[in-house]
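User: Can you predict the 3D structure for this chain?
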Amino acid sequence: MIELHRLEAYIADKLDVSAFDDYCVNGIQIEGRRDIRKIVTGVSASARIFQAALERDADAVILHHGLFWKNSPHPMVLTGILRERVKLLLDADVSLLGYHLPLDAHPTLGNNAVISRELGVVNVSFVAIEGLERPIAALGELPQPLPFAELKQKADELMGSDGLGLDFSPGPIRRVFILAGGGGGYFNDAVEAGADLMITGELREENVRAAEELGLSIYAAGHYNSEKWGIRALGEHLKQEFDVETEFIDVPNPV
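Assistant: Here is the predicted structure, written as structure tokens:
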């Protein structure tokens, strides 16, 4: 068992939350009961994951994509879907915590770090991207060069998806740039880092021709599939550090 605000303070320190100028609330978003014995983790807020947490008698839910975002059309209005989601947690006295950029950038628990580790990428370092001074993208090398098709197959098996693969590199894949989520627009950062391949979650239409012209191959797993890793790793870490039960809830999303 751990007290809610002690849990928040621990995660804030572990993920260096204060170092990020994020566009969402990192930390407690809804305050529930004081004592935490069971934590449910997941990628994104939804009634479905909140209901699953209640069915499992969770005391807190920790998500990568929480409920409150500065760029929402009406961030101060509690109506519609948002009201119903909040009501589920308030009625049950269950807390909600969210961690966005800090859980992308962390060098061991972050999405990019875990993906690189699971893919067997070596000599990994972390680099900043345009508009964000804090190093966030993982950059590393494959133990041996691989044809793009072979690497895509390996990534598909890891991600549990049939990702979008665009083979624009003139040769085998050696150097990999990993930026989970909506990272498709950072192709210039990948090329400047010397990567043959960028692994991300999703692309915009205009990213494709730009990558082609730059000779950068792209593998896009889907936003959700590329961001299951950090939140799951955080839950496992908390389970080891404290006397709490944690459970990752997978709510599959093809996007």
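The mean pLDDT is 96. The first helix runs from residue 4 to 14.
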